[in-house]
C-alpha cells in the first residue's frame, strides 16, 4: 500500500484526488519491477528482497516531486489522454524512486536514525550496509520503467539524458556537502560561506527536486527548446534554494512527529543555512562557542548551539527571509516564465510556502 494521506478542505480536493490516483498505480509499478523476476528461481530471492526495499522506501514521502510531473504536464497539455496521464504518473514515480535512492545513501552517510517517521532502511534488522546495494537497485529501476513506458515516445532520449544528468548533478552536490563539512571530521568554518551553501543546495537539492519534475513534463509536452528550459531552470533552482533553507530551519526547529525525522544537522557538522547565518552575526566569543560545540554528537553541546541560535534570534531572521524570498520568487515567475504557464511555478511556490514538514 502507498502512504496514507488525507485532504480536509475544498481547495485541496483536486490535489487529494490526484494523490489518490497517483498512489493507486503504485502496486502496478511494483509489479512492473518484480513480477517477472519473482518467477525466476535463480533470482527470486533477490527480487523478493528488492520488493521489500521498494515498498519500505518509496511510497511514504509527501510525493510532491512525483505529483508535480503530473500536474505540470496537465497544465502544459490541454485535454491530455488517459494513456499520457498514466505515463506522467509512472514518470512521477520514477522521480520518487530517484528520491528514495538518494535518501537511502544519504542516511547512511549522515548516520541518520529516522526517515519519514520510521527507522532508516539501513537501521532495519538484517539490512545494514546491504542498503548500499539496495540504493543502486532503486536507481536502476528508474530506467526499467522509462524503457517500458516511453521507449516509443519522441522524448525517450531526452528523459534518459535528463535522469542521468540530474543524478550526476545531485552526486556532485552531495560531494560538495560532505567535503565541505565531513560528518566525522573536525569543525572548520572557513568554507561555511553563503556562496558555498548556495552551491551545495543548487546541486544537491534544486535540480532533482524542482527542475526535474517540470522538465519531464515539458519534454512530454513537446517543449524541448533551450530557452524554455533555461527560463524554467532559473525559477526552479531559486525555488529549490528557498525549499532547502526551509528544510534546514525545520531540521532544528521542526517537530520530529511532524517532519518525520530527527534533525541531525548540528551534530553532523552540516554547512546549513542556520550556522552560516550565525557565523555572519557572532561575536568572537560566540564564534568560539560554535567551534567548541558544533559537529559533536553530544546532547549538551547540541543544546548549547541551539541556545546560541536563540541568542542570535535566528527564528526571526528566518521568518523575514521566508517572506522576502517568497516575494522574490513571485517576481521571478512574472519575469522569467516566458510562454510557460505561470500556474506551474505558482503552484509549486504556494505548496512550499510556510510549510511545516
- Along the chain, the helix and strand elements come as HHHHHEEHHHHHHHHHH
Low-confidence runs (pLDDT<50, min 5 residues)? 1-11
* N-end to C-end Cα span: 22 Å
Strand content: under 5%
Structural class computed from helices and strand pairing: mainly alpha
Kindly report the spatial arrangement of strands forming the biggest sheet: 1-2
Described by strand count, sense and barrel closure, the largest sheet is: 2 strands, antiparallel
Mean pLDDT: 92
Question: How many strand segments?
Answer: 2
- Helix amount: over 70%
Number of helices: 15
Instruction: Please state the CA-atom Rg, rounded to the nearest Å.
Output: 21 Å
The best one-word shape is: globular
Provide structural commentary.
This protein is an all-alpha fold and 357 residues long. Helices cover 70% and strands 1% of the residues. The chain has 15 helices and 2 strands. Strands 1-2 form a two-stranded antiparallel sheet. A hairpin with a 2-residue loop joins β1 and β2. The longest helix has 29 residues. The protein is globular, with a radius of gyration of 21 Å.
List the topology elements.
Layout lengths: L12 H12 L1 H13 L5 H14 L6 H13 L5 H29 L3 E2 L2 E2 L10 H21 L5 H25 L13 H27 L5 H28 L2 H4 L13 H7 L4 H10 L5 H13 L2 H23 L5 H11 L5
Main attributes of the structure:
357 residues, mainly alpha, two-stranded antiparallel sheet, 70% helix, disordered N terminus
Summed up:
The protein is mainly alpha-helical and 357 residues long.
